[in-house]
Amino acid sequence: MAQQRRVQLSVQRPTSTVCVLGTELSLDVCGSAPKDAVAFHVQGTPGVKLYVVHETQSVKLPSSVCRWPLAAGTEVLLAMDALSKDVGDEKVRISYFREAGGVPVGRAMLYLTCVEVSLDADTSRTGAVSRTLLDKATWTWGPDGHGAILLVNCDRDDPKAKMPDNRDTAVRSYADLKDMSQMVLRTRGPRTIFAGHHLLLHVDFSNADKVGVFYGGNSVALEEYKHVLGGSKLAYTVKPSRHQEESVFYVEGLAFPDVGFSGLVAFHVTLLESPEKGLLETPIFTDTVVFRVAPWIMTPNTAAPLEVFVCSVDNNEDFVAAVGAVAEKAKCPLTVCPLVENRQDRWIQDEVEFGYVQAPHKTFPVVFDSPRDRGLKNFPVKSILGPDFGYVARQAPEGASSLDSFGNLEVSPPVTVQGKEYPLGRILIGTSFPRFGGRRMAKAVKDFLFAQQVQAPVELFSDWLQVGHVDEFLSFVPAPDRKGFRLLLASPSACYQLLKEKQEEGFGEAVMFEGLEQVPKPTINEILANEGLRKLNNYAQSCISWNRDILKRALGLAEPDILDIPQLFRGNVANGAEAFFPDMVNMLVLGRHLGIPKPFGPLVGGQCCLEERVRALLEPLGLTCTFIDDYFSYHVLSGDVHCGTNVRRKPFAFKWWHAVP
């Protein structure tokens, strides 16, 4: 329905007003009628379309009816579909009559000027701003949806700047402008009409701190771009140029969707009519366009690797070299974080998670910094944040726990669950349920992840572990069949079954951790006879089985989609479990190349039986297994190859706005 405005008329003096292209004017014919008038006649110049609404029927003029009764509910509507060349070049005349009179008892004259005022953005999501018939004031999901998209401008295009671009109110480079979305104000019609009317660009108070708008006028010079809207600036008066019909604004997002912010932001342009001196301006037309701030999107292990990160600390030269060798096989660049930057903190997976943001006109990676803040605290800002590489962080005011490290943050590959598609996968986080109390992920981090909408998080039970990370018992690897991946789960049951097989084959005296110094070396017989160890692993298996059922339901998996990786745990129920030997599930996945913690398992026939079992599970999928000695890890024997590395991966080909959350 066209936007409609009521216009008051007068028989004492002519009235002038503006009709905005695409809108309707409702003429108050009864309010201006002389006292004795009972009927009226209306006629207009050729550029005006007139309709009389009488007794619920709309009649287009001219018609066979010459006079219309001045009855309650009778109104005259008009529209114009061509721009005026001059001010007041079209007009409408209302003539009023007594009951039987042939001479009008009064006339009301209305002079009209048709102009165009339109606020446009890339609502069709093509990467360019264009006029459209789509409803600009709404935003819809799906492949047939519409609505403009805004990126959080969280990179740092100027290397000299001290903060991300979304924390300042300046345009420092043309690259900075390219991160922003265009919003175009079109004004057409007689330019003098805008001298007596004001155009106000404005944003709702509730969202003003979520966006910034820059305008350079007719100039292309970088220094001419000024911050005109956002933050404390709620409105900006636009002065249309006499020579240009378009004013181009650049819009940046300042904040990601989160609690209290859905991500939707509406901008309005209002045409104000200037009344007599001393009176307030009157709004006569408003156009609105809605943007959605693009979410932060996380990439799964199965996505193509683009860059591997690893930390160099004391005595881990061999580990760094081994990771580099796997990266070289995968033809993936390796970035080594030096000791001066990591300050003896090797757990780069726990510190950050790599993702990206995407709009039709631009995509760039964004690193998510955890509240963990140990030795690597400054690394993301100092060494990752930069041109076209964004940064976002969340803190834990209540104090960070181990569950706030991003080893406790994973994402599945794309899945379909009972007909519901998750084309960007589902985020997986660990928490303390079903046990009452215990550790939980910080509210700020969890709220942020849920607010992104497109990777609906699933909560798993991880507080049974001493460290409490989901990557200690699960991972994903690519596969050529079924869903395109396999879920790997640590399995004490599978490990006991393997060790029992080797015992029955006569290898009960084969020892664990052969070749390692100052480490107890239990035999297979001793492990199988250790009742305390078995009870703990029965508990660990029950926790993993609980999560297995959750994952099957949440990801739509069947048993053939899951592989059980033999693994034992040690510790106790009160303080949590940790890996008994290096945790093979905690692996580095680079395409079909896997870097797996070396388990130092029993040698049977000169081969590590644990390694051989894992090869037998994974190599039929076309995967190449490289076992990495991670003995000098912080956990001594946990073998956190995954937590000791991090991978930036290729964004999804799927466009997130095509999803239906």
From TrEMBL:
Domain Protein-arginine deiminase (PAD) central stretches: 115-273
Enzyme nomenclature, EC number: 3.5.3.15
Species of origin: Aramus guarauna
Domain (Protein-arginine deiminase (PAD) N-terminal): residue spans on this chain: 1-113
Family that this chain belongs to: Belongs to the protein arginine deiminase family.
Sections of the chain in a coiled coil: none
Main location: cytoplasm
GO cellular component: cytoplasm; nucleus
Protein name (record): protein-arginine deiminase
Catalytic residues identified in the record: 350, 469, 471, 643
Location in the cell: Cytoplasm
This protein's UniProt keywords: Calcium, Cytoplasm, Hydrolase
Reactions catalysed, as given in the entry: L-arginyl-[protein] + H2O = L-citrullyl-[protein] + NH4(+)
